[in-house]
Amino acid sequence: MVTPQIPITGNPDADQLLVDDPLALLLGMLLDQQVPMEWAFTGPFTLRERLGHLDPQRIAAMPVEEFVDVCREKPAIHRFPKSMGERIHGACEHVVETYDGHAERIWTEADDARDLYTRLREVPGYGEEKTKIFVAILAKRLGIRPDGWEEVAGPFADDTPRSVADVASEESLMEVRRWKKAQKAAKKSKAD
């Protein structure tokens, strides 16, 4: 049995939000590109602090420009607050329209890992690699392992410390950073 934990942000409250709130986890992964992992996964906590909630229905109901302004407040939610704010808004709209505002239904109602993969790919901003990493996060960090998850997660299912799915402590975060740095130096991707 896995003890649910995602110790990535350096802020215990922000880390716990990722475990307790499925939308926070979905949005943290969405933000995880072109910024340090800690910054990306702190984003949902920052949004909740600014908005007073992390309710997808209320976010989706906001004018997108108004929501982007919240993302632009200093410190910005992301290196690219406009485009990422629009993606977050779009993801919330998707969760509301498709899952009645319950992000966890993406995985709790999936028939198997293939279905989960398809459901995640429908979330605005979720490409192939992000989807595979998210499946690995669910399995490795939260113990949610639908049939076939290893195949769907691909290389992110293995024991190599290559992504946020492999972060279980400050030490493992450093291992992931070292591995990524070595991959970059060798001109290889996270999936290699």
Describe what you observe in this structure.
α5 crosses α6 (about 80-100) and α8 crosses α9 (about 130-140). The model has no long low-confidence stretch (mean pLDDT about 95). The chain is an all-alpha fold and about 190 residues long. It has helices at about 10-20, 20-30, 35-50, 55-60, 65-70, 80-100, 105-110, 115-120, 130-140, 150-155, 170-185. It is globular, with a radius of gyration of 16 Å. It has eleven helices and no strands.
List the main descriptive attributes of the protein structure presented here.
mainly alpha
Topology:
Blueprint: H1 12-20, H2 22-31, H3 37-51, H4 56-61, H5 64-72, H6 81-99, H7 105-108, H8 113-121, H9 128-142, H10 149-153, H11 170-185
Q: Summary?
A:
This protein is mainly alpha-helical and 192 residues long. Helix content is 61%, strand content 0%.
**What is the number of beta strands?**
0
Question: What's the N-to-C terminus distance?
Answer: 29 Å
How would the global form be characterised?
globular
Fraction of residues in helices? 55-70%
Looking at how many chains there are and whether they match, the oligomeric state comes to: single chain
Provide the succession of SSEs.
Answer: HHHHHHHHHHH
Main sheet record:
none
Low-confidence stretches: none
Number of helices: 11
Mean of pLDDT? 94
The fraction of residues in strands falls at under 5%
Rg value: 16 Å
- Structural category is mainly alpha
